[in-house]
Write a structure and sequence with these properties.
The chain has 4 helices and 6 strands; from the N terminus they run βαβββαβαβα. With about 150 residues, it is α/β, with parallel strands linked by helices. The longest helix has 19 residues.
């Protein structure tokens, strides 16, 4: 199975750490949505979208990327990290997938170290995350996606 994960990960790189753990299972290409590149998502069996939670939702760059490049009917999954609150999670990018008739294979989320805004004053929240257990759960999630796609 060949998978593309289109992601945005800044600040502490929490989302990228989770994706790198998943990628250890093989067959995954990571695509940073902030770099301009030729993207042909139709060449992949499924596509993931990943982001930290910014202002209670996925980063707008990920949603815009999905609107532009996600092929009709392509199976998708979502991954996100959050410091304090999950907010609406993957809701906005899931709406794009629904508009394009894409089946959703699942969603994975976990806490991620956050020092944005007022959290900086207290040394951040969700310290130590994603941790070893979070990364193992991420690998298991991706293994499950692989099983679903190979049925």
């Amino acid at each position: 199975m060949k998978t593309a994960v289109c992601y945005y990960s800044r600040h502490h790189g929490n989302t990228r750490k989770v994706l790198e753990a998943m990628a250890e299972e093989g067959g995954m290409d990571l695509i940073d949505v902030t770099t301009r590149q030729a993207v042909r998502l139709e060449d992949y069996d499924c596509v993931g979208f990943a982001s930290g939670i910014y202002g209670f939702e996925f980063h707008k760059a990920v949603t815009a990327f999905a609107r532009q490049y996600l092929p009709q009917g392509k199976p998708v999954f979502f991954v996100y990290t959050y410091g304090g609150a999950k907010g609406t999670g993957a809701k906005t990018v899931a709406e794009v997938a629904k508009e394009k008739g894409c089946p959703v294979l699942g969603t994975f989320s976990c806490k991620g170290y956050d020092t944005f805004g007022p959290f900086r004053l207290v040394g951040g929240i969700a310290k130590g995350h994603p941790n070893k257990r979070d990364l193992e759960n991420a690998r298991k999630f991706y293994q499950d996606i692989q099983r679903k796609m190979n049925l």
